[in-house]
């Protein structure tokens, strides 16, 4: 026997009834009462007094109920009593109708679901984007989401869109942040956030939420995308609002709200994985003086353990973008997956760097980008044939700004889009193939060919030719060096 107290927020009177397990029928997160039971009749008689939502929570069996009978309920079992304060009119921090949450199934996002319901009295739609993080991370997500209190889980495969519309433009632009970082996480966030905006429209949500901390770059990347694509959406960032400060607090909150705590082993590193890269932060990496441990790496073999025989790979490129591997045409995502496999086997693409975060602090990260490193090398080598000096210099200077915009989350900024149009135009003749040699962590060019090559053997040869007369160089040098000659004459009083 348990006791149910129904409390009207508009009346000082309380309604107390006794309920047995047979009186309750749980179905689709709703409570149904048998019309023949005395409990139903007693509650029905007082229904006009009561407004709001009800949540019945029983720590003994994990029962959680959301109903529309307009009551706040407290279900007492043994000596434990839990009050879930969420009314139809307002939560602890306000009222939202429906929130789309970026959801991974880990501890943090599992806790965010009940936190949103409690604080904003809203339905929560969990959203998971498949950007190539691996099948293992997508298993059992629907059960986890609903067990946490979500009304729905939406999963979208964004791998092809991610590579085609986000990675390839950065590759074509030659965008590298602070000399090393190939922007793996930076490119993934806007494609996820864009999909969240689409899902919010599909399900009629008035808000979106993410689990990014207040110290990182990702909060900016998500929210700038939300602003650009739907400025009317409310944005909730629990890590900037709640009192949870760490893993132990999150576990305690989860237990208090009957949310199953994920039993997966917690890594000592903070990782982000997608089809382009795998990043590692935290633990011993927080001290830049520490060398990474070999067992940390997951996408690449150590160069020392890589095959003793080099492997050659040929990349076909059309208009500055890769289209084939070893003569086989592949879709963008399939092509990248193939090169990740090949490059990882040879220890390609390991980067250890200290970078400047957008929020001002420095951070140390280690990145594995095997396929991406191969592609950047291939495109750059082909451009050495197809771009003239002035164009290459302008492109390289804009690539720095392009990388900064992507790193800062300004993917949908008109400036980046305009620069992308420039990059597309100047690389339209970058067609051909590049053959690369992979060996124990290194990538070196073996050959490059292009039907649009500006390289002319008959001009570049040291042998005499008709197009280039070496005698012409004398006049060119005199004119080119005239400013330096005049300055020297002035200093010597000539």
TrEMBL record:
<keyword id="KW-0028">Amino-acid biosynthesis</keyword>
<dbReference type="InterPro" id="IPR024074">
    <property type="entry name" value="AS_cat/multimer_dom_body"/>
</dbReference>
<dbReference type="GO" id="GO:0005737">
    <property type="term" value="C:cytoplasm"/>
</dbReference>
<dbReference type="GO" id="GO:0000050">
    <property type="term" value="P:urea cycle"/>
</dbReference>
<dbReference type="GO" id="GO:0005524">
    <property type="term" value="F:ATP binding"/>
</dbReference>
<feature type="domain" description="Arginosuccinate synthase-like N-terminal">
    <location>
        <begin position="98"/>
        <end position="260"/>
    </location>
</feature>
<dbReference type="GO" id="GO:0004055">
    <property type="term" value="F:argininosuccinate synthase activity"/>
</dbReference>
<dbReference type="Pfam" id="PF00764">
    <property type="entry name" value="Arginosuc_synth"/>
</dbReference>
<feature type="domain" description="Arginosuccinate synthase C-terminal">
    <location>
        <begin position="269"/>
        <end position="486"/>
    </location>
</feature>
<keyword id="KW-0547">Nucleotide-binding</keyword>
<keyword id="KW-0055">Arginine biosynthesis</keyword>
<dbReference type="InterPro" id="IPR018223">
    <property type="entry name" value="Arginosuc_synth_CS"/>
</dbReference>
<protein>
    <recommendedName>
        <fullName>argininosuccinate synthase</fullName>
        <ecNumber>6.3.4.5</ecNumber>
    </recommendedName>
</protein>
<comment type="subunit">
    <text>Homotetramer.</text>
</comment>
<dbReference type="InterPro" id="IPR048268">
    <property type="entry name" value="Arginosuc_syn_C"/>
</dbReference>
<dbReference type="InterPro" id="IPR001518">
    <property type="entry name" value="Arginosuc_synth"/>
</dbReference>
<comment type="pathway">
    <text>Amino-acid biosynthesis; L-arginine biosynthesis; L-arginine from L-ornithine and carbamoyl phosphate: step 2/3.</text>
</comment>
<dbReference type="GO" id="GO:0006526">
    <property type="term" value="P:L-arginine biosynthetic process"/>
</dbReference>
<dbReference type="Pfam" id="PF20979">
    <property type="entry name" value="Arginosuc_syn_C"/>
</dbReference>
<dbReference type="InterPro" id="IPR014729">
    <property type="entry name" value="Rossmann-like_a/b/a_fold"/>
</dbReference>
<keyword id="KW-0436">Ligase</keyword>
<dbReference type="GO" id="GO:0000053">
    <property type="term" value="P:argininosuccinate metabolic process"/>
</dbReference>
<dbReference type="InterPro" id="IPR023434">
    <property type="entry name" value="Arginosuc_synth_type_1_subfam"/>
</dbReference>
<keyword id="KW-0067">ATP-binding</keyword>
<dbReference type="InterPro" id="IPR048267">
    <property type="entry name" value="Arginosuc_syn_N"/>
</dbReference>
